[in-house]
Amino acid sequence: MYYPGASLGIVEVDPETTDADSALHAADIAMYQEKKHKQKTPFVAHSAPHS
């Protein structure tokens, strides 16, 4: 049986040093890491490095 699910990318950022695009990119990476590892617990990324 198949049970649908959802994956979320959660990221903690400092608004003084991280712009919205960088935060969204980090959350996207966190979401795909969670999907890749099929964890039952959240994968939380911390502030993305400035580029």
From TrEMBL:
InterPro entries: GGDEF_dom, Nucleotide_cyclase, Rev_trsase/Diguanyl_cyclase. Residues 3-40 form the GGDEF domain. Signal peptide: none annotated. This is GGDEF domain protein. It comes from Escherichia coli 3.4880.
